[in-house]
């Protein structure tokens, strides 16, 4: 029922989705960019409903505290403690290994502020669990959510991040410093 409501609101707001996650794909990390505003959350819920896959999302643990923590959990959220080194990558890889089907969305920028480089956990989870990354771009000027075909990380981290930056550089409204840095070969 909630998905139908999210689809209606998403479309009423003028948004659309281009691309899809293959029906046969059982597992993935869904890397969503940009993480620029609180509006990313309802746009993401609408896009997830239109895509039609069960996708859980990782969010900072502070969101899951009262009074609204129950809501974020109900909407598919899983809290992440970002305050300490807790082997999160290994823990998420283990969750993937223990599940037959799992799609996890996150914002690799890690914050709504402009960043110089991406957090790399999403990449190393994908490598560790041997699953693809689905790059998803929220193009605010065109009100379009672009979903790229699955991307499997290789042994060339520099080339992989350059490919990620190249993809996101085509999404309007993504004017983050990290894109230029990766395309220029910095921060790798």
TrEMBL record:
Domain called Phospholipid/glycerol acyltransferase: residue spans: 29-141
Pfam families noted in UniProt: Acyltransferase
GO molecular function: acyltransferase activity
SUPFAM superfamilies: Glycerol-3-phosphate (1)-acyltransferase
InterPro entries, per the entry: Plipid/glycerol_acylTrfase
Keyword field: Acyltransferase, Transferase
SMART domains, per database record: PlsC (SM00563)
Pathways per UniProt: Lipid metabolism
Protein name: 1-acyl-sn-glycerol-3-phosphate acyltransferase
Species of origin: Flectobacillus rivi
């Amino acid at each position: 029922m909630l998905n139908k409501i999210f689809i209606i609101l998403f479309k009423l707001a003028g948004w659309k989705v281009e691309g899809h996650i293959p029906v046969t794909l059982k597992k993935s990390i869904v890397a969503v960019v940009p993480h620029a505003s609180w509006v990313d959350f309802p746009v993401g819920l609408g896009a997830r409903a239109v895509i039609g896959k069960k996708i859980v999302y990782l969010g900072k643990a502070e969101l899951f505290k009262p009074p609204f923590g129950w809501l974020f959990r109900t909407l598919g959220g899983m809290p992440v403690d970002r305050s300490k080194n807790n082997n999160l990558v290994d823990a998420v890889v283990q969750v993937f290994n223990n599940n037959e089907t799992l799609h996890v969305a996150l914002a690799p920028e890690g914050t709504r502020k402009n960043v110089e480089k991406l957090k790399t956990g999403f990449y190393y989870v994908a490598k560790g669990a041997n699953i693809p990354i689905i790059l998803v771009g929220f193009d605010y000027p065109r009100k379009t959510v672009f979903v790229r075909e699955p991307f499997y990380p290789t042994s060339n981290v520099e080339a992989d991040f350059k490919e990620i930056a190249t993809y996101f550089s085509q999404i309007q409204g993504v004017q983050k410093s990290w894109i230029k840095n990766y395309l220029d070969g910095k921060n790798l």
